[in-house]
Design a protein that fits this description.
Layout: H1 15-33, E1 43-47, E2 54-56, E3 72-74, H2 91-103, E4 109-113, H3 116-123, H4 133-139, E5 142-145, H5 156-164, E6 169-172, E7 176-181, H6 184-207, H7 216-230, H8 236-250
Parallel strand pairs: 5-6
Antiparallel strand pairs: 1-2, 1-4, 2-3, 4-7, 6-7
Helix pairs in contact: 2-5, 3-6, 4-6, 6-8
Amino acid sequence: MFELPKLNLKDKVSEAEWQTRVDLAACYRLAYLHGWDDLIYTHISARIPDTDEFLINAFGLAFDEITASNLVKIDLEGNILDQDCPFEINPAGFTIHSAVHEARHDAMCVMHLHTNELISVATLKEGLLPLSQYSAFALASMSYHGYEGLAVNEDEKARLQSDLGNANFMLLRNHGGLTCGKTIGDAFMHMYDLTRACQVQLQVQATGAEIIEVEQSIVDGIKAQANVVHTGLTGGQKSWPAMLRRIYRLDPTFAE
């Protein structure tokens, strides 16, 4: 009950898969560090480059227990591909993540979280409002998906895919948030922006004071600006190595 299986896949998988495992495990630890985890019930997945296989957390492990080796490799049908894997996966996590990976081949990484701020703004009829720079980033590529209960029904996948479209940010009504990225670092930065946007909105609305919204013309034009800030050499690819260094300093066991 208290001892997790000791796994070491470093020399048993491709270099590309191992790097994906390390980055994804780091993303889980960062989510824990930011207080974004929800016991064992949310998920971050990453596609292994040049395959239709992806990695997701083992059901029953807390985010601060995730390592590169105990991530579970599955296909788009939910089959566990590691012969000696001692873990299972969460069916709801599989439904949501397989839906996105199936439809969005550009989405290397998908983050799905249940923080109070994400759920609160997702539950507001008006959704995310243009109240901050963070919200402008998210609103440049925002989508919504209605609540259908626990995401275990296969037929929900088509509706989720349709609602997501080409967006990189999604609020799942009454449920939480989801972000996509071409890299794990990009998905993390998108979730950081979305979370901060929701936090700021709730804090501003709680004042009851008159609100100044960001003009729609600025929101419409900020996508190009966001591409400079959060992707490429000057954005997400700069912040992600800094986040990796932070996790290595705090607890390098994530990379085992």
